[in-house]
Amino acid sequence: MSIQPLLIAAAALFSIGIYGILVRRNAVMVLLSIELILNSVNINFVAFNAMLSDVFLNGQIFSIFIITIAAAEVGIGLAIVLMLFRNRETANINEFDLMKW
Question: Would you tell me the crossing angle of helices 27-52 and 58-88 to the nearest 10 degrees?
Fold first, then answer.
């Protein structure tokens, strides 16, 4: 199997994630865009691991770490967004200026 379709899919996911971060103003949508970027990196790690036939499975191990970090990021990020939503009654990133003096 060729690695090119996997790299094209990963590049498309990465591009959609970057577009979502730059355009969206809803905090939950920005978190979802970050997840898309992390998933595109996972696809690249696994694809290059399969192509290089690494015996230690380094690409897959890094993918497991990224999935774990992404799960923690979602939990903490959504908790922060929910607390800000309770205080400000909005999920718009432009209106989160609680730490401005």
Answer: 180
Give the orientation angle of helix 4-23 with respect to helix 27-52, to 10 degrees.
Answer: 160
Those residues with Cβ within 8 angstroms of residue 39's Cβ, 6 or more apart along the chain or in another chain = 13, 70
Number of structural domains found in the chain: 1
**pLDDT digit string, tens, across residues 77-93:** 999 889 888 988 888 88
Q: Does this model's pTM top 0.85? A: yes
Tell me how far apart the alpha carbons of residues 92 and 69 are, in angstroms, rounded to a whole number: 24
Please give the residue range of the domain that contains residue 68.
Answer: 4-90
The single-letter DSSP state of residue 95 is G
CATH number at residue 64: 1.10.287.3510
Q: Encoding tokens for residue 45? A: 């790690």
Which amino acid, residue 3? I
